[in-house]
Amino acid sequence: MPKNYDAEKNNPCLKEQELSYKCLSKNNFDHGKCELYYANYNNCKEFWNKVRADRRANGIFPYLPDVADRESIKAEYMKTKPT
User: Fold this and answer.
1) To 5 degrees, how large is the angle CA 31–CA 74–CA 41?
2) Considering the entire predicted model, what is its pTM?
């Protein structure tokens, strides 16, 4: 099966998604054993959907930042994140 080279570009939570699939596979698809992976994936999706919405509201295109810029955006958020 050919690798989808645009997967990471289009899905900023690809790593979290793959880890949740791997957990399911490893645990015979027992969803209860993978709740932490689901929570992590959902938090990731929530964060990037907010970034996308904020960029759209401010007229910044593309709405989803380039792969190279994502780490700096996450780091900036972590500095301003309320505790």
Assistant:
1) 10
2) 0.85
